[in-house]
Specification:
The structure is a homodimer of 582-residue chains.
Chain A: E1 18-30, E2 34-41, E3 44-51, H1 57-65, E4 71-80, E5 93-104, H2 121-126, H3 128-131, H4 135-157, E6 161-162, E7 180-182, E8 190-192, H5 198-206, E9 211-219, E10 231-240, H6 244-263, E11 272-274, H7 275-282, E12 296-297, H8 299-302, H9 308-311, E13 315-321, H10 329-340, E14 350-354, E15 360-362, H11 370-379, E16 387-393, H12 395-412, E17 423-427, E18 432-435, E19 440-443, H13 456-461, E20 470-475, E21 478-485, H14 490-499, H15 504-517, E22 525-531, H16 532-539, H17 570-575, E23 578-580
Parallel strand pairs in A: 3-5, 6-9, 11-17
Antiparallel strand pairs in A: 1-2, 1-4, 2-3, 4-5, 7-8, 9-10, 10-22, 12-13, 13-16, 14-15, 14-16, 17-20, 18-19, 20-21, 21-22
Chain lengths: 582, 582
């Protein structure tokens, strides 16, 4: 037996017990006549003590020789510390060691095993197994387990069944790029790894399973942006005999449950706003509503004077920065420069200071009088002491630009508190989006999403205007989930494929099995998929997902610890009837 | 809202309630003036009634027009049935329908949606979404969810953390064949899909996570025997600071928990027998101990006469078939023919009838007297009325042959009751096995398994004799899990690789990251992996796993429903710098 207790559980109530602990040498202090060692395991740290008066010479010598990260086993008596440490739960006691055994030695680690380490990202990834020893990583993995286990508990409680769908499926050119897997037994043929279990979960609904969920790995072979992984984890769910409200209420319940049990935060009914409204009010379909600064539309009250920039713009919109009148001219200029960067691409900002005395001072005083400015203040909800920032241009661009500025200012002003949680639903997404490159419509969500049923006719005449029964769950400015009511009628599904530019043959080749299934009594159904990696990170107050993944890949899709991907033997290629092109 | 209740929950206590149900038309009976419909969903069946006196003409007509598997929504009143069905929970009530809406129509299904269906395997797989509607499949998927959710509950309760390990890893030629995944971003390089998360879970132990589990998809590109799937699910576990007993006790606890909560079966402490003993007593390393018939070794009491077949054999062993004296000569001959088939490959069986009067009658009376036969009876534990079956030959073969005969007879005699559960541990497996083909040792479990530490010297002199700290969990004659205490010392790991014929370079190339990890304070650790697919099937009293997998592949590794694997486009191959060989 390697231990009677772990390193985190001994307390003053255990005084005088004979205990055996195992763990890693975290730190040691050698005062000559006395040696203290912090022994660490997953559960905590316990202090070991060796001293001349009470320990044998050999034992002290052995203790002094221990290096950092040595794995040891000790037996000893729990005694009261003379100087207590109130910062840790085991801080009132220490172990007077009578027996010490080295279980394994350790080279000096390439970086310190501390919350704040001196190791850079690359080094940490190469020695990820040491990185995980650091509390700041270890706690995140434990946190992830807590979240996923609460998700399962909640969904199982609502009769959702965890069903495993296959990993080796069929490649479909629609959507993102598939990872493919050559089949040896079926020479020249390939499986694909799933980008999501979408069609399978729909088939499970056709199969009558009624409520399905799965926490499942999905795969996308895309060029990786920062914080995107080629393999990621999805909480995938589907329900039968539901309308949109049923789905929203169910997963609002799940999110509330997580916030309550994991963060002890109680959130009221989530706001639900339409996609069009979200874009108009926040310039984003994933608005951060922890803070206000909603857009005011100023066209009617700003295009009546000689200011040509506004007059020629499709849209003039402004936001009110609370207490923004405190900004110096230099600070305002900084934001103007910020929006002019190519990433944002705006021309500039018109600003209006709302003075404490009720007057206004703007960068366009030449064109507008105090009454105009007062109107703008009213429309942007600006009060005395605030600052109004106004941008203009073509509708889509200016909304995006002001939306990004809004978030940037929210961040600067500390309005994006990671321990505050502001979830909402964004609904009524457009069904289709026009793709300039291919000169055709793409599905905004996916090809199985149901259009609003009262807009079916519009789908024939003006497809771009059709809204979908599609919704996103947004938390603190991040999309953490998206879903839709699906098409369950084969005629509507055919119409949809047609709008997406599929020939009948193509549709049949790629999704024939689903079209077939729809012939045999498919029930109305819908669902959602939440990104677990991101959900966990945000619940834990972070936006970066990497440290919530035990063994993440870098931005080139590489695992530098195991050196994957790597070359394979010619034999392996031969067996698969493949050859490498030069 | 599609329903107020599901089809399985209404009871006599709901009388007179107005309810809305949705589901599938399972059956309908049309008596002209009255129509009954069985409405089915996942939760059960409710009877709908339409009749001339109480329903409108249109409604009756619509009801009569409904086809099987139509999806409908009905509203009506819960009334008491005149003739009750005590076989189903909803059998006391029916719904007098006032409103009927067709949600979707259905073509006539290609096979009947009943527990006993007329659909063959191929047809059922092609229309798996209809197959799943049958209770006999649906219930198995629900059962699987129940098992996996109890596993999670139990392991989480013991502080095991669910950690997701990567799916895109590195190919290692050791062991079975990998599925590989070409990397587009790293041209000419390949990922592999994991055959198990073995090295990652060991790294998590090096990382201090202490207790890990994961219910995880694993992949093996092997020629498929019946009931093997290219992707399968493993309950993968690892623990630090444990010896073999700690692991066995923990997973014995898990298995007991499952038997108790899922099957309401209480099992005492599991027997633990060594591999050598299992082979000697049952001729198998996964003995079915629901019944006895243990081998008796007869060499010393059967090689003293002129019977040359026994005298020239390396081993003579027998089993006693309880009440086997009732077998007719014809039945005995059938077993003799059975063991002579090439699959078993034996020469024959010597038998001894144990008469009720205490005398014996054998097929070798010419050579042996009553006293000899009485000795054999004693050694095989045969009583009056039993039948002793004896086989001889070289040790390994005869044990295997008699082992198979033992199971065959157990099956015939009804001693393999699927609702009886007899788990046991088989321990002390050999570390290595000799492979004739490659003329080298292979790892019996895997290269990371620790030899018995007191046999390290033997590893240098006589590796084939060394036993490992490796164990299997066996249930009803099936291996449902296997594991080992791992090597955590880099020197022993090097020695092991050497014994397996790895050059230092090869070992470093393939497992360098693990060897590196062992330099930085790897703790003693060990674990186990259980096959979920099989565990679930056996707990449910079945041996075939296919119906416990929602979308299984056939024996050619094909999913015939979605038609995978399939061809991919030249563009996809080009992007991956691959070409197909003719």
């Amino acid at each position: 037996m390697y231990r009677t207790h772990n390193c985190g559980e001994l307390r003053i109530s255990d005084l005088n017990k004979k205990v055996t602990l195992s763990g890693w040498v975290h730190k040691s202090r050698d005062k000559g006549f006395m040696v203290w060692i912090d022994l660490r395991d997953r559960y905590g740290v316990s202090q070991l003590i060796f001293d001349e008066k009470r320990s044998s010479k050999d034992l002290i010598k052995n203790a002094k020789d221990l290096g950092r990260e040595y794995v040891i086993q000790v037996t000893g008596k729990v005694i009261e510390r003379s100087s207590k440490n109130t910062n840790i739960p085991t801080g009132e006691i220490e172990i007077l060691v009578s027996d010490l055994k080295i279980l394994n030695s350790s080279k000096v680690p390439p970086f310190t095993i501390e919350n704040k380490t001196d190791g850079g990202e690359e080094l940490r990834m190469k020695y990820r197994y040491l990185d995980i020893r650091r509390n700041s990583i270890k706690d995140k993995l434990i946190f992830r387990n807590k979240v996923s286990s609460e998700i399962r508990k909640y969904l199982n409680g609502l009769n959702f069944i965890d069903v495993e769908t296959p990993c080796l499926i069929k490649s479909t050119p629609e959507g993102a790029r598939d990872f493919i897997v050559p089949s040896r037994m079926n020479s020249g043929k390939f499986y694909a790894l799933p980008q999501s279990p979408q069609t399978f979960k729909q088939l499970l609904m056709v199969g009558g399973l009624d409520r399905y969920f799965q926490i499942v790995k999905c795969f996308r072979d895309e060029d990786l942006r920062a914080d995107r992984q080629p393999e990621f984890t999805q909480i995938d769910c589907e329900m039968s005999f539901v309308n949109q409200d049923d789905v929203l209420n169910t997963f609002e319940g799940l999110t509330k449950h997580l916030l309550k049990t994991i963060k002890n935060v109680k959130v009221d009914k989530f706001p639900r706003i339409t996609y069009d409204n979200a874009i108009a009010k926040y310039g984003s379909d994933k608005p951060d509503i922890r803070f206000s600064m909603e857009f005011g539309e100023l066209n009617s009250i700003s295009q009546h004077k000689d200011f040509n920039i506004f007059n020629s713009a499709e849209l003039v919109i402004g936001i009110s920065v609370p207490k923004g009148n405190d900004f110096t001219r230099k600070e305002i200029d900084k934001y103007i420069a910020w929006v002019k960067r190519p990433q944002i691409g705006a021309n500039g900002i018109v600003y209006v200071r709302c003075n404490e005395d009720g007057t206004y001072k703007s960068s366009v005083d030449k064109f507008y009088d105090q009454k105009d400015l007062a109107n703008w203040a009213k429309t942007t909800n600006a009060n005395k002491g605030d600052l109004i920032l106004i941008m203009s241009g073509d509708k889509d661009n200016v909304r995006r630009q002001l939306g990004e500025l809004r978030v940037e200012i929210g961040e600067t002003l500390g309005l994006r508190n990671p321990n505050e949680f502001a979830p909402l639903w964004v609904t009524d997404f457009p069904l289709l989006k026009w793709d300039e490159e291919s000169n055709s419509y793409h599905a905004m969500h996916h090809p199985f999403t149901s259009p609003k049923l009262d807009q079916i006719d519009l789908l024939k005449s003006n497809p771009g205007e059709v809204k979908a029964n599609a919704y996103d769950l947004v938390l603190n400015g991040n999309e953490i989930g998206g879903g839709s009511i699906r098409i369950h009628d084969k005629n509507i599904q055919s119409l949809m494929f047609k709008n997406l530019g599929f020939s009948e043959k193509q549709a049949k080749e790629q999704f024939g099995f689903l079209m077939n299934a729809f012939e045999y009594g498919a029930p109305p159904h819908g669902g959602i998929a939440l990104g677990l990696d991101r959900l966990v990170a945000i619940l834990d107050g972070n936006e970066s997902i990497k440290d919530y993944i035990a063994f993440p890949k870098n931005n080139s899709g590489k695992d530098i610890m195991i050196d994957a991907p790597s070359s394979i033997s010619k034999d392996q290629l031969d067996e698969l009837s493949l050859s490498l092109k030069k």
